[in-house]
Known about the structure:
Layout: E1 2-6, H1 10-27, E2 33-37, H2 40-45, E3 54-58, H3 68-79, E4 84-89, E5 107-110, H4 116-133, E6 138-143, E7 146-151, E8 155-160, E9 167-172, E10 177-181, H5 184-188, E11 194-198, E12 201-204, E13 208-212, E14 217-220, E15 227-228, H6 234-245
Parallel strand pairs: 1-2, 1-3, 3-4, 4-5
Antiparallel strand pairs: 6-7, 8-9, 8-12, 9-10, 11-12, 13-14, 14-15
Amino acid sequence: MNIFILEDQWGEQVNLEKIINEIAQEQRITLSALKAYSKVDELKEHLPAASVDNVYLLDLEIDNDKEAGLKLSRFIRKHDLYATIIFITVHDEFLPVTFKYQAEALDFIAKDKDNVKERLTRALKAAQQKPHLFALPTVLLKIGTGYTRINIDDIIFFSPNPANSHQSFLQLTDNQRITVHGSLTTLEKKSPLFFRSHRRCLINIAKVVEINTHDHQVILKGVPTPCPLSRLKNTTLLNRLAELANTDIN
């Protein structure tokens, strides 16, 4: 697990690092990185490679800007789609505002309460489980006169075969496109990671890099051309992505 703290009070930084180290020892969490930053730009400059193992612990107020952490969360989420974001602050009245920033935060912890360690323990234990959600299995697909087993992580999207309603085209990460038996409706049932973004497209949501709600498009990793996104599917797709990014800790 890699933990990155944004906190402009040195004493609070030290205290959070102490608590996190205690939790890691008690819960047997391996910390590959534990770094603290006092300025937003500092953390932006040292933003790590995107990873489901990344955890960002953000104070809301930095340098008298009460929404600095929220603004940063939006920046992080664009760069690191499946990372865990946890807010910690004395401004718990800002909880409703977090939804406006679509940060998909795992928790919102008031640091002036006496249960900070308890809440952080629950949050970090939940974050520790997230990589298991990304241990992607294989899917068995019918091709030609036989069957083939394909890693779901190698699947980008399916599109219909206009010449045959019982077949679809499968786009793979190695730029290979193969014909498989089954309509998009049938194929969608084969994995919870498959999402019908449009009547002409079934995507692997683990490959989503960006959602353009203005042009109604989804950009997928490894594909130069955006996939169509139905206007009615915007909210559903965001919710599905939030399910992947977060784990229920209640």
